[in-house]
């Protein structure tokens, strides 16, 4: 029994063909499949190309696919969602095809298909919840110009801001300034401006979060304060989601932390958890999943055909194969 | 004796032909003359068109022009500055032609040509100082993604942020939300997102500062706090400039507040002055000029040929004519 899991993000799309024991028998990566970025026709093509690639890599397993689950960004529009479903259903008739947003698969990569809360913090940030009644909730995710607190963008921007405050004699000395000069290969802080502003400003700034984290590793006080504040913001967003009156979950609430920033969860975790506790939220189980989001799509694909997985052995086998 | 004053901003360029008594005998307005936005050739054309228009409007006064002063944005590059000077000098040979940045003329519109500090707060913000030795200093002005504290953009962004915090149950109720829904003609706060993000996001957000100010007029606490914080940021920037070790000025330092945000200086002035005082800066004279920046260019043009103006009568006459 095989399924296809698809993770469609803002910059790339990953599709994998996996057995219920977690064996990955085919894997393909393409560009973004976000219809808001590239148009619906291009997005459909991207999905088809990837599925086609899986079929060629392992025709035998492909014939035994029983379910497809795609977690896609940019499918808030019901029309887009339906079109994406149709294109996959036409390609794989008579099997279960589900399209959902990419936050759900990120959640499932940590909860193995159970409800809970996921905090995604990559270039942008969003908090997403699925409760035991199947209700969905969202906090944040307003984009880089308005919010995206606790995102790579927010951390990178705060680092830049600190460097310019130091330059203007308005803020304390920070190693971030030195690291930025080195990173951009310039001699003066102002010289970074034309290198930052441009079409890719958002991702350029988000990538500077790594510089802030490096400075924090060196115990730079300004960097540590930025990380602390942004972690608190993430904690506040998770709190807001859990406190939404219609959010219902019995027992401990799983809180899954994912996205590029969480590669450095060692720097953020304590302050996130502390913020939750400060708000009286103790009944949570915070995890940083070992599995990538696309594994959440695979888990959801098995769930769609009522196939229970042996969690630990599935995870271990999957991670052996996953590139 | 007539001079030409030119104010070249990010969206429009104004040129006027004025007598030493402040009588405006010709006035022309064109698009931006910022070479970084439209290229140097287009920028030069824009200046020529305006000067040509002045010459047609009043050929007699034009023949008696003794000096031209242009305060232009985007001429940090010495090459651009020289090219802009040449194009005007070719057009008006044998008379004094000066090109300077647009912050200087904003300063002079408040100091009548004397050194001092100018805080510009329009779509963006920058603090600029000219000391008694002719040294120039700058604080802030890093653009909307990194800083621009106290700008229209910063105020508008803070207003949006407050509305989204309220929506997410993370912040207090604010009239800003109601006013934003009305302004964008939408029913839900999220529905604003596609209307905000786009090519003109920066100016769209900056224009929302008016909404924050309207809410502040109604004594909305969130709006009042935004205005207070942003005013403090302006005060901090002015403080940083005055504290730059090489900035030298005897007696009271003139501090000129200009730009679109300062149309509502009634809301900002107290907290700006209080912030300066909190930093021990008392020897300042803070003014919001009645004259527009282009008048600063006119004053500088007369100064370039050593012509002293009768300040008050010049100002009154100028404002009678200025449209």
UniProtKB/TrEMBL annotation, chains A, B:
It holds the Pfam family BcrAD_BadFG. It comes from the Bacteria. CDD domains: ASKHA_NBD_eukNAGK-like (cd24007). SUPFAM superfamilies: Actin-like ATPase domain. InterPro entries: ATPase_BadF, ATPase_NBD, Euk-type_GlcNAc_Kinase. Gene3D superfamilies: 3.30.420.40. Residues 4-301 form the ATPase BadF/BadG/BcrA/BcrD type domain. PANTHER family: N-ACETYL-D-GLUCOSAMINE KINASE. This is ATPase BadF/BadG/BcrA/BcrD type domain-containing protein. It comes from Alkalihalobacillus trypoxylicola. The lineage of its organism: Bacteria, Bacillati, Bacillota, Bacilli, Bacillales.
């Amino acid at each position: 029994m095989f399924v296809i899991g698809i993770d469609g993000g803002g910059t790339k799309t990953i599709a994998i063909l996996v057995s219920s024991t977690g064996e990955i028998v085919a894997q393909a990566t393409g560009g973004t499949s976000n219809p808001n970025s590239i148009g619906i026709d291009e997005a459909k093509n991207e999905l088809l190309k990837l599925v086609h690639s899986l079929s060629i890599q392992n025709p035998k397993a492909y014939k035994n696919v029983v379910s497809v689950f795609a977690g896609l960004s940019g499918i808030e529009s019901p029309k887009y969602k339906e079109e994406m479903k149709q294109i996959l259903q036409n390609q794989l008739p008579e099997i279960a095809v589900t399209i959902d947003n990419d936050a759900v698969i990120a959640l499932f990569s940590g909860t193995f298909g159970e409800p809970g809360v996921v905090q995604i913090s990559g270039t942008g940030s969003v908090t997403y919840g699925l409760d035991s009644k199947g209700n969905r909730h969202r906090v944040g995710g307003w984009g880089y110009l308005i919010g995206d607190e606790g995102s790579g963008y927010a951390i990178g921007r705060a680092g830049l801001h600190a460097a310019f405050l130091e330059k203007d004699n308005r803020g304390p000395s920070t190693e971030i300034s030195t690291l930025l000069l080195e990173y951009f290969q310039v001699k003066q802080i102002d010289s970074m401006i034309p290198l930052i502003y441009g079409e890719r400003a958002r991702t350029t700034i988000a990538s500077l979060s790594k510089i802030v984290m490096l400075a924090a590793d060196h115990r730079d006080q300004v960097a540590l304060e930025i990380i602390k504040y942004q972690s608190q913001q993430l904690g506040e967003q998770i709190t807001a989601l859990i406190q939404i009156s219609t959010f219902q979950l019995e027992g401990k609430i799983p809180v899954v932390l994912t996205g590029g920033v969480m590669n450095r969860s060692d720097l953020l975790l304590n302050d996130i958890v502390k913020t939750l506790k400060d708000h009286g939220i103790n009944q949570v189980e915070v995890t940083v999943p070992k599995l990538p989001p696309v594994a959440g799509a695979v888990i959801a694909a098995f769930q769609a055909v009522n196939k229970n997985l042996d969690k630990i052995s599935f995870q271990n086998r999957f991670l052996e194969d996953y590139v």
